[in-house]
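Sequence only, no structure available. Ideas?
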Amino acid sequence: MGVIHRSLDMAKQIVSVVLKPGDTAVDATVGNGRDTVFLARLVGERGRVWAFDIQQQALAAAAKLLEKEGLASRVTLIHRGHEDLARYVDDNVGAVMFNLGYLPGGDRSLVTRPDTTLLALEAALLKLRPGGVVTVVIYRGHSGGKEEEESLLGFCSKLNQASYTVMHYRMLNQINDPPSLLAIEKLIQEV
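Reply:
I predicted one. Tokens follow.
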């Protein structure tokens, strides 16, 4: 592709500007493990990645990929939904990545849902350090995907502009509901 990138590529570009060696990052939806590997490389040997998924199949695939890449020691895989993020992750997170929808090659009836995704997003924003980012790649093409996007856009449009900058990146002339991207930068600690 030319200078205009897919939503996931854009999310990675944003995160790579912010995340530094030694940082803490979260992969809120492990999926096939590629985002987990990406984050593990960025945080370096002294950093930590917390990675969540409700499907053991996703965690097993990610563990295998992390082992192959020599990055397993930097990552804690958690067999829980992303709505439990606050129970495991400390403050001062540099980046949180969400890749919504369903596990590619997995059970398509198991999809992310607006209620749990909003809980996870709220927790992620509280854990984020000033200057940190949350990226949310939103897939609209599955059952409930459009509703999930609408709820996320509604939530983000109400975030305090003194505390957060929110961007919505979306392809307008592509068919088959291509994913869009929400990127949220935390400017200051909320009071």
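The first helix runs from residue 7 to 18.
Hope that gets you unstuck.
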